[in-house]
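Here we describe the complex-level prediction in full. Unlike the single-chain runs in Section 2.1, the two entities below were treated as one system.
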Amino acid sequence: MKKLSVLLAATMSLSLFTGCSQSGGTDVYPSRTITWISPSEAGSLADTLGRDASEFLDLGGQDIVISNLVGGSQSVALTALAKSDPDGYTVGVSGYAGLLTQPIQQQVEYSLEDFRYLGCLQSPWTSVIVATPNSGLTSWDDVIERVKNGGEVIYSTGITGGSSHLGILQMMQQSDIQLKYVPYSGTNEVNAALEGNHIDIAIMPISGDNKAKFASGQLVPLVHFDLVELEGSPDVPCCSEYGVDPANYINYDVFCVPKDTPDDVYDYLKTKVDELIQNTEYIERRQASGNAGYAPTFTEEEFTELLYNARDVYEEISIEAGLAK
Amino acid sequence: MTEALQILFTVFSLESLGSMLIGVTAGIIIGALPGLSIIMAIIVLLPFTYDMNSISAMYLLLGAYCGGTFGGSISAILLNTPGTGVAVATTFDGYPMAKKGKAADALKVTLTASTFGGIFSAFALLFLAPLIAKVAFVFGPAEYFALTVFGLSMVANVSNGNLFKGLIAATVGMLVTVIGADPIENVPRFVFGEIQLFSGINTTVCMLGVFALSEMLLLSQKKENKKEAIAVGKSTLSIREILKHSKLMAICSAIGLYIGAIPGSGGDIGAYMCYDTAKKLSKHPEEFGHGAIEGVIAPESGNNATTGSALIPMLTLGIPGSAAVGVLMNALSVHNITPGPDLFTNDKFWVYSIMFGLIVINILMFILGNGLTKFFVKINKVPQKVLVPCILVLCMLGGYSIKTSFFDLNLIPIFIVLGYFMKKIKMPISPMALGIVLGKLAETNFRRALILSDGSMSIFITRPISAFILAFTVYSIVSPHVKEYFKNKQAKTN
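The structure predicted for the assembly as a whole is:
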């Protein structure tokens, strides 16, 4: 039993020891290593956002260390960021899942008000509703007609309660129809379910792979949620034609810092992030690794307002769909 | 003809062979380290591919993928610690073989069966890809659920004669998968307000504690007895002797091939199904669990056969068959390769170079594996006082690296204690692994199927494939008892 205690103690000590962090610094910002909190697994597509940024961002020659805090649909990373010292040495990035849907649908220890926003990049998750060729559905109007005539349309999304799910729920709300929802986990599962004709329609990211499927007729795009027309499929209508504002569904990867970050530190970081997202080399790198490259420049007030508006819409739909906490 | 020659030149170019060799070596080594997954092997090599041409890049990553699938069985055999999830079934007979002093034999059998399975699936990829893809997608929620029921019926086979304890262990495993967000409604279950538990407990973290570290704990409590240590020696089996089981290898490779092509299933389920099939086909099923050579051949040929078939849905339809293949697909986007039906018409040269390359990768895996296993087998010569802390550190690093999460590290001791006490009361661990692997898949697909059928259970028997699998499951559970009944009756009559 003694050896059991010793081994367990060693295991615990090892795990606690490795959790120690460094501290210290001087008054001039930035004067030490900056931690970049990434909510995704190291090496994943989303994680490359931070890794590429650390290469292109010049923060006074200071190193940027990526800290991958994965879990809870990005909320683990955002909880850590909200609780970190607001000194500019901890910067985070998150998608809409962590920033918007988690605080509405789950018990988390932060809200939108806990952060200041430095800038954003369009994530690869801007959505499009697609149908299988076998479903016989070629437009959203077909979907409405089938359901209103007593037919059934089965749909799915990769994340229950995610922003794209809320997007299709709002489309249903605006069109006054009910579709049958079969949840799948992740876009690969949804793709497989579409291919096997186990579902009729799905809301999917507008990615290079999916654009190729539209071109080959493997999938039929019905409605997109972007501000620009769907590349290669210009006739596909925007969700705005059905009373849904696409601005709420353009998913951004958002760069943020804790809310009490001083103005001088914030301004320094904001300038650097603005430079980063306008850096063509960085954007090309993002596009080459399969990410969207669109990088709008917002002021802090503009972007905060955009997020708050989206939150109001998400909250209303989540409550109606029984998804709110 | 010219194109075929070009493909051959590409596959056997120095750059291609170099990429394959590095990939396979890295894959075997990373796969053999407990907790480090096949995905990690691919991710580690991913940055090196950015400046390579797309074919060499794929050879490097596919080498790691195939090597990692084989590598996971090395620690499964030598330490009763599956290096990767797909190697769990290999522990059932691989470790008992090693304990009998046949570690080198077990590794040779593993390598041969893995190579057989890998080459079998590479040929299937070359000739049958579109056909297999078409059949694989027929699997919907009802069929998936039926498949998991079949998998779970294996509890009886891996309970070491104590079905009651085996069922408890499987239930514990399934309960572990219940922790976290509900897969259908996204409602948190048993998270006790801890946001880190929202995504559930990582399977590898659980396996590291229950399988690997609890074993180390038991080992550390034993007084080191050199006579008891697993004998290390040269293999007494020749390749020809192993290939006498080529019929079983072919059957299991065919099972693995089909299971691997179904998106979301993967090598672990394939390995369990093959083990079960081998036991049913064997003339000596009582030897299973005690070091039966067929018990090693079956899961290894099965799980390696999934390597090629998991590429089928990706190459033909742009849908990855497993998480590891998903990472491969992301890597392709860097090289502007978009998998899907168009690839076969627009870039035939690329597709066939990859398919043919996969055969060569498996041959290289055999050659390299032979050398590396001779090195790995020496692990049993390492004294316990050195081995135990080394494995402890490796497992903790492995547990941390999955999500770079300290929270996961702190969960490991809970599973060490659980595994330790299960072993102390002689509760079999393998059924728990089955529960962990199949629990979530079973629950999710059961509920999805019921949504589709508006709550009617008839969906499981009205869909032909689902009904067939369930009927086969019932047959495989009942038939041994019926046979035994008639055997006893005949004996009484005589």
